[in-house]
Each structure stands twice: as structure tokens, then as C-alpha cells.
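explain this.
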Amino acid sequence: MDHAFDVPPTDRELLDFAVGLATRAGQVSAQGFFGEWGSRRKEDGTEVTEIDLAVEELVRNELARHMPEDGIYGEEKGSTAGVSGRRWIIDPINGTTSFTRRWPLFSNDIAYEDEYGPAVGVINTPVRRPRRRRATRQGRRGRSRAQ
């Protein structure tokens, strides 16, 4: 246990899973960035592209397959309840305006929280620079490492 927080460290396999998932999301969004796609306005006035929806669907499907008891909150499709007390948070394309203007200033963001709070965060910038990952309970709180 990490006595500074009195919580267990984040499982390395969980962090690796999240990084792998963000990498796959990045592959889909990078292909879309250089390809053709449609978009529409959501009720709140913000834009959503077909790529946003495809990336979120990919991530949700993988989470349902590998972590079926965990809850999910996705920017595009809202909440899916879980029974584990853990939750994944997805912003499939953070920076949709940049994406739609073909500016490579967007990311795929995936986070994980458990009964102790935030545990993992991955920010993948697939056409700009290496992704960032963060495990808040790895003994290096607050430090990001390039992958």
C-alpha cells in the first residue's frame, strides 16, 4: 500500500491495457483525420464526427469485452452503469473542432477511476507527438511519461 494515500498502487496491467486501447483509438482517428467523414451538430451545439462515434464505439466494445463489470462514461453516448464500482471515462476525440479543421491538435483521452479515485489517464495525440500516460498511484504522482 502507498502509505501517503493509504491506497494500493495502480495495477501495471491496467495501465498497459489503457495505453493499448488509446493506441487503437488513435489508429482509427488518425485514419479518419486523413480520410473522409461526415459530421453533425449535437443538441448542445457542439460538433460530432463519424470518427468520434467510431472511436467511442471501439473503446466501449473493448471495455465490454475485457472489463464487463465496469461502468463507462463517454462524451458521445453518455453513461453505461457498471456493478464493480469502477468507471472508465472516454473522450474519443478531444478537440473535435481542431480535428474537423484538419489541425493535428486533438487527442484520444481515456481515464479510469476506482473506489479510491482517479487511477489512470492516457492522452494519445496520434498525429502530433507521443501519447502521455499517468498512473496516479505508481509512486510518481503527477509525473507524465512519454511513450
The mean pLDDT is 87.
